[in-house]
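Appendix C: a fully annotated inverse folding record. The material below is reproduced so that readers can follow the format used throughout the book. The structure is listed first as tokens, followed by the designed sequence.
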């Protein structure tokens, strides 16, 4: 989507994020990206708990494709960059990059589905959330 601007979220790599060699363990990258998506929504005015309570919706990861390019290490200052690439009725796709300075360490394409908070069945993204995501 040409109109969307990237959202940037800083992360510091802590000892708990690394393996014995001081390199970020591969599953920790998923946590970093989840935090970035959560803070992106929060920055748009949509906290996860409020979405469940007020809108009766949850956002869940449907699928993800990841390319690991370079390792992150203990004490690195990273930036997780997130940007909407496709908006559909009940889902959106975004590209996420994990960067150290200008170096791309990881690229991911993430499809996020909107589901009913009680039944977990797919549902449409509420209009005000869709508008906010499309213009972010």
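Designed amino acids, in order:
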């Amino acid at each position: 989507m040409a109109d969307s601007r990237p959202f940037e979220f800083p992360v510091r790599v802590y000892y708990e994020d690394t393996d014995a060699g001081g390199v970020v363990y591969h599953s920790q990258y998923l946590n970093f990206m989840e935090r970035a998506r959560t803070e992106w929504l929060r920055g748009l005015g949509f906290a996860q708990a409020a979405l469940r309570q007020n809108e009766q919706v949850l956002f869940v990861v449907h699928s993800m494709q990841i390319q690991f390019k370079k390792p992150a290490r203990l004490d690195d200052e990273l930036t997780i960059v997130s940007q909407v690439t496709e908006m559909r009725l009940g889902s959106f796709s975004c590209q996420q990059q994990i960067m150290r300075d200008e170096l791309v360490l990881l690229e991911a394409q993430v499809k996020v589905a909107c589901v009913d908070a009680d039944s977990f069945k797919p549902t449409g993204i509420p209009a005000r959330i869709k508008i906010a995501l499309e213009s972010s």
